[in-house]
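Structure catalogue
Derive tokens from sequence
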Amino acid sequence: MSDTRGLLDRITAFRRRLDATPQLIPDALPVDADAPSLSAEVDTFRDSVHRVAGPAPSAPAAPLPQFTDRAQRLLAGAKQLLDRQRAFTADAHFAALAAAGTDTLVGYHRETVAVLDVAVRTAQAFPDSAAAQLKLCDGLDGLLGVVRDRLVVQERALGARRTEADRIDRLAAFLSTVQSNRPAELKTVATLAEEVLDDARQARPVRFLAAPPTEPARFVAAHALNVAQVVARVVPFDFEWAGRPLLPVVTALVMDCGMLAVPASVLSKAEPLSADERRVIEAHPKYGAELLLWRFPTIAGPLAAAVATHHERGDGTGYPNGLRGDDLPALGRLLRVADVYAALNEERPHRPASDPRAALTEVLLMAEQGQVDRDFAEYLLNLAFYPVGTVVELSDGRVGVVAANHPNRLDPRAPGRPVVAVLADANGAVLPRAEHVDLSAADRGSIVRGVGAVRARELLGAKYPDLVS
């Protein structure tokens, strides 16, 4: 945050030098800490501010030349952008991201600040001549347009990150409350479920959330939200749940409440679990079901039955009771499929996240072997091999993001040939604008693989922080 602090100090000092003059540009922006002082430009800029903002109410009008109307509009627009940038920099959630230093939004924000600093300097250099102002207005207008577009991107990206973190925190708080035997209401979870369902109804991309296993409640909550996102997108295809999707999504959100009894050291372990540690893990479905029945005895019956069986397998090799086939409730079988698929798409201490196509293939293979329900596994085909929002590499080396899929169960090629917005060329250079390719209509080209989170950040994070974090 040294850049932010630097310009903040500079503009604050500059503001003091303007005395009681109405302020055009607030103390908002970061720049390099070693940048030269603005003190030499104070007198010139004081005149500029008076011309645009007018004299103080108690002072007589000064006989100074006026800016052109266009210049006044641009400088007023610059002030608004500065105010937005200041609010963004001061946002508590962004401050946390900046402190961590790993989110692509931090670097994107730094570049926006640099462009805005150039705009501020241009505004300070405005001359008295209308003809000279005309040329500077063209340049300032272009700079402010760039800043405006970037602010929209970074504000949208920060809003999405805030929403995701808020959902994790709310669910983690509920799970912790239930675990610690404090008063809790399922209404909290129902509200979250409605939000997840609304995202699915609006065809928003599935974003697999993550939290460190050293924070068990948030780790469990992030996975539960991922499972709920998958459930929300497959229940419309099931005759039993299509008309009442809230219950399966709520159940997905609470199904791992028993995992809070598992120590963080076990959740964080990258090596194979010991027999005792495995027994602790395998006890969580039964414990979670008992916890729900105890805390919500009048309404938790259907939830508890599904929670207790979401790690059972149709071939009898699951846990905790080794149940088979018809002994498993439908909701438990649905959760099992969504749980496995979501987990494969998540990074874990003992393995990296799978490619979405590999995750789907693994679940379908498990269905063939009787380990998960075949019908529910086939519903995952509606997510396609690469769900909307997945960063992918094409066979010619270009990189893009899946923009749309073609739901056609009669065409076996459809899940693997979506519409891709190509964002980077084969050399990794980001394109000035997206190029959309419909692979289902193309004679050549296909998706080779999904791009991992680290590589996606390297390739696209500088320009598309709203797509990769």
Q: What stands out?
A: The chain is about 55% helix and 5% strand.
